[in-house]
Amino acid sequence: MDTRKPLIAGNWKMFKTVAEAVQTASKLASLCQDLTSDSDREVMIAPPFTALSSVHGVIEGAASIHMGAQNMFYEKQGAYTGEISPDMVLSTGCTHVIIGHSERRQYFNEQDETINQKTAAAIKAGLVPILCVGETEKQRESEETFSVLDKQIRIGLKGFSVDELELLVLAYEPVWAIGTGKTATSGQAQEVHSFLRNQLEKNYSNVLANSVRILYGGSVKPDNISELMNMPDVDGVLVGGASLSADTFSQIVHY
Ligand code: 13P
After folding, report:
1. CA 78 – ligand 1 centroid, Å
2. How many domains are contained in the chain?
């Protein structure tokens, strides 16, 4: 039983002004007109916070293009200068939120415990959490990949019931492959995705493990997407640099 519809997601990171984001999103919507909500794949873009409302205006009619935030805070509201709440994210038209991206972990000191609170807040708000995990080059070289990933999902998903994790999407993004041009081979991606699925089965249930989509991220391009998507446990991709151009991202979407 495999009901995992491929999700092709673009993370625009800290790129694009409102005008640039609107232009890219409109072009993408026209390049993806062939996709409908019944299509065999879903698309998601995560523009910066400042452009979310405007981008929503241009993709609203495009049934298969969803929108996500790149991060959010877990509190409902309060004196947290500079932060964005789940309700604020929802109010822009987002249905998804990326949580625990390695750049948040690396530059903003996000820990697994905080990531767990953010995941809980996303689930409570009805947002699809895209929980990112991944090892650094040093950790891979010292053969700590599986223990690092195990810890990231064990703490990141602590305290949830199987039912609460129904919407969960995991993204495996090896830190050494992000923005470096070094992609994990399809075999390396498959090995880790299969490990993550086994952990979900061990910690939760077989049904959950078989329904959670696991995306691969790290230097995904039009010329390596097909090979990655051929792997049985790769259910989509999280694309950074190559999602900034509507043409290139559309080629990835139409792999
Ligand atoms: P790149 O595709 O630029 O390597 O970035 C991957 C990523 O971090 C997506 O979240």
Report:
1. 32
2. 1
